[in-house]
C-alpha cells in the first residue's frame, strides 16, 4: 500500500553571515534557490505535501517559493525558539494523518531523494523515528548521535555534551523522519530545559526512547548534508552539485574532455554523443539534442539546440534561441530570440536577434540584425537558401526572400524579394594612379614638417 508523506522544511534562518539583502534560502545553487532544491528532493522521494517554515517578515521568501511551486504551503515561526518550536509552526499539518513526516532544511540543498527514500523505508519497516547522521570530518558544533548497542538513544548538542561525548564523530545532520501518527505528540512534548533554553527537535529521540518507541539512525556522506551559512559554503555546495551533474552527464553519454571547467544549470539537458568542450557555461533553460558540439568558451541560456548542431567557440546564445538540426553558430556570434533553420550557418562575428532564418541560409561574417529602434523591437525574416553578404546590416522589420542574395556591406532597409539581389552601398569608383600621387604628397608634407 502506498504511504503518504508530509515534508516540513525549516527556512527561518537569519542568514546574516551571507551579508545579503536576499534571504539565505533564496540564494541559488545551479540557478535554483536552495530551498527549491530541497522541495524537489522531497517531491522525488514521493512527498505529497511540503510546508516551508519561514521567519516573521519573510514575505518575499513565501512569494518566491510560490513562484516556483504554488502547491507549497508557507507557515511563519514568529519567534526563534528552537528547531522543535519551528516544526510546531506547521503543527496543523503534523496533526493531519500523513504516514511519514520528514524534517528538512532550506539551507541544506544537496540532500538527495534516494537518502529520503531510505529514511521512508526505515519508517515503513517499523521505525517511529529515523535520524540522518554522518561521520563529520570536524564534529565541533554538531549534535552527537549517542548509540548504544546498535540503538540510537539520544542526540547531545555540542554545547550540552560531556568531554567524552565530544569525542564522538557520528553527528546529527538535523534531518529526521517521523511516524506521522505520533509526530505532533512527540514534538509537543519537547521542553526547553537546556543550556540555550531552546526547544531542541533532537530531544524527540530520548522522549521516543522513554516511550519504548523504535528509534534508528541512518547515515549519509557529509557532503550530502552540508549546510550553507556564508558564501564560501555556498560555493562549496555549488562545486559538489556541479561535480555530481558532470558525472551524471558523462555516464549518460555526453563527452567532456575537461569536465571540471564546464558549468551546468539545474535544468540543463544534453543528448547522447554530444561533445561539450572546455569552459562552457550553461545557464538555465538549455536543452541540447544528440550529436551536437558545444565548442569552448560558449555561454548558453534559454536555448534549444537541435541534433548535430555546432555552437562556438566563443558563442553566446541568449533566451529564445532555437537552433534546428545541423545548424551552426560560430565564433563571436550572439543570438537572441531567433530560430536558425535546418542546416543554416551564422559562422562569424554576427548579432542575430528577433529573427527567423529558414533552411540552408548562409549569414556572412559581421551580419547584424538591427532589431531595436530605441523603443521597440522588430522582426527580421531570412528565407531558405538566402545568402547574406558579410558586414551587412538588416534593419528590421525586414524580410529577405528565399534564394535572395544581399550584397556584402549593404544596409538593408527594404524587403528583398525572393531570388533577387539586394545591394545597398556606395558605388565603387577607381581612379587610376591616384594612390602613388597621394603617397608622394604625404611624404612631401612629412619632410616639410
Ligand atoms: C542543529 C541540530 C544539531 C545538528 C545541526 C546540524 C538541534 C537542536 N540541533 O543544530 O543536532 O547537528 O543542526 O547542522 O536541532 N531553525 C529555525 N527556527 C529556530 C531554530 C532553528 O527555523 O528557532 C532552523 C535554522 O534556520 C536552521 C536549522 O533550523 O536551518 C538548524 O538550526 P540551528 O540553530 O542552526 O541549529 P544548530 O545549532 O546548528
Ligand atoms: Mg546550524
Using brief descriptors, characterize the structure shown.
449 residues, alpha/beta, Spore Coat Polysaccharide Biosynthesis Protein SpsA, Chain A, UDP N-Acetylglucosamine Acyltransferase, domain 1, 9-stranded parallel beta sheet, 34 strands, binds uridine-diphosphate-N-acetylglucosamine, binds magnesium ion
Word description of this protein:
The chain is an alpha/beta fold and 449 residues long. It has two domains: 5-225, Spore Coat Polysaccharide Biosynthesis Protein SpsA, Chain A, CATH 3.90.550.10; 250-422, 3 Solenoid (UDP N-Acetylglucosamine Acyltransferase, domain 1). It is 21% helix and 29% strand. Uridine-diphosphate-N-acetylglucosamine is lined by residues 10, 12-13, 53, 77, 80-83, 85-86, 105, 107, 142-143, 155, 157, 171-174, 200-202, 227.
Produce the secondary structure layout:
Elements: E1 5-11, E2 28-29, E3 32-33, H1 34-44, E4 49-55, H2 59-68, E5 73-77, H3 83-88, H4 91-94, E6 100-105, H5 113-124, E7 129-135, E8 144-148, E9 151-156, H6 163-166, E10 170-179, H7 183-188, H8 204-210, E11 215-219, H9 231-251, E12 269-270, E13 275-276, E14 281-282, E15 287-288, E16 293-294, E17 299-300, E18 303-305, E19 310-311, E20 316-317, E21 321-323, E22 328-331, E23 334-340, E24 345-348, E25 351-357, E26 362-363, E27 368-370, E28 380-382, E29 387-388, E30 393-395, E31 398-400, E32 405-406, E33 411-412, E34 421-422, H10 434-448
Parallel strand pairs: 1-4, 1-6, 4-5, 7-11, 12-15, 13-16, 14-17, 15-18, 16-19, 17-20, 18-21, 19-22, 20-23, 21-23, 22-24, 23-25, 24-26, 25-28, 26-29, 27-30, 28-31, 29-32, 30-33, 32-34
Antiparallel strand pairs: 2-3, 6-10, 7-10, 8-9
This protein binds uridine-diphosphate-N-acetylglucosamine and magnesium ion (MG).
Amino acid at each position: 500500500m502506498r504511504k503518504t508523506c508530509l515534508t516540513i522544511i525549516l527556512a527561518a534562518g537569519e542568514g546574516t553571515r551571507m551579508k545579503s539583502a536576499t534571504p539565505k534560502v533564496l540564494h541559488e545553487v545551479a540557478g535554483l534557490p536552495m530551498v527549491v532544491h530541497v522541495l524537489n528532493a522531497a517531491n522525488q522521494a514521493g512527498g505529497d505535501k511540503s510546508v516551508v517554515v519561514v521567519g516573521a517578515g519573510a514575505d518575499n521568501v513565501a512569494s518566491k517559493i510560490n513562484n516556483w511551486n504554488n502547491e507549497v504551503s508557507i507557515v511563519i515561526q514568529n519567534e526563534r525558539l528552537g528547531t522543535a518550536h519551528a516544526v510546531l509552526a506547521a503543527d496543523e499539518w503534523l496533526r493531519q494523518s500523513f504516514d511519514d513526516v520528514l524534517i528538512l532544511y532550506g539551507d541544506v540543498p544537496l540532500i538527495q531523494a534516494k537518502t529520503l527514500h531510505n529514511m521512508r523505508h526505515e519508517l515503513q519497516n517499523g521505525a517511529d523515528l529515523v535520524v540522518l547522521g554522518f561521520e563529520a570530518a570536524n564534529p565541533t558544533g554538531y549534535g552527537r548521535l549517542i548509540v548504544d548497542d546498535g540503538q540510537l538513544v539520544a542526540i547531545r548538542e555540542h554545547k550540552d555534551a560531556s568531554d567524552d561525548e565530544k569525542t564522538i564523530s557520528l553527528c546529527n545532520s538535523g534531518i529526521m523522519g517521523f511516524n506521522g501518527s505520533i509526530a505532533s505528540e512527540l514534538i509537543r512534548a519537547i521542553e526547553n530545559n537546556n543550556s540555550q533554553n531552546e526547544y531542541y527537535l533532537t530531544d524527540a529521540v530520548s522522549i521516543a526512547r522513554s516511550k519504548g518507541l523504535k528509534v534508528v539512525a541512518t547515515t549519509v556522506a557529509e557532503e550530502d548534508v552540508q549546510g550553507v551559512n556564508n558564501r564560501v559554503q555556498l560555493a562549496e555546495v555549488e562545486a559538489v552539485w556541479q561535480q555530481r551533474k558532470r558525472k551524471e552527464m558523462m555516464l549518460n553519454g555526453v563527452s567532456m574532455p575537461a569536465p571540471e571547467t564546464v558549468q551546468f544549470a539545474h535544468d540543463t539537458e544534453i543528448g547522447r554523443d554530444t561533445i561539450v568542450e572546455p569552459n562552457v557555461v550553461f545557464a538555465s533553460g538549455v536543452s541540447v539534442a544528440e550529436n551536437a558540439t558545444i565548442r569552448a568558451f560558449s555561454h548558453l541560456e534559454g536555448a534549444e539546440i537541435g541534433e548535430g548542431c555546432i555552437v562556438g567557440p566563443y558563442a553566446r546564445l541568449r533566451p529564445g534561441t532555437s537552433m534546428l538540426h545541423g545548424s551552426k553558430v560560430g565564433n563571436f556570434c550572439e543570438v537572441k530570440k531567433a530560430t536558425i533553420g535546418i542546416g543554416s550557418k551564422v559562422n562569424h562575428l554576427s548579432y542575430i536577434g528577433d529573427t527567423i532564418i529558414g533552411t540552408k541560409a548562409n549569414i556572412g561574417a559581421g551580419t547584424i540584425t538591427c532589431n531595436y529602434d530605441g523603443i521597440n523591437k522588430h522582426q527580421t525574416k531570412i528565407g531558405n537558401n538566402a545568402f547574406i553578404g558579410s558586414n551587412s546590416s538588416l534593419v528590421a522589420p525586414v524580410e529577405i526572400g528565399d534564394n535572395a542574395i544581399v550584397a556584402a556591406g549593404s544596409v538593408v532597409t527594404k524587403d528583398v524579394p525572393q531570388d533577387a539581389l539586394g545591394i545597398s552601398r556606395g558605388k565603387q569608383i577607381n581612379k587610376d594612379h591616384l594612390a602613388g600621387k597621394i603617397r608622394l604628397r604625404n611624404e612631401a608634407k612629412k619632410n616639410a614638417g
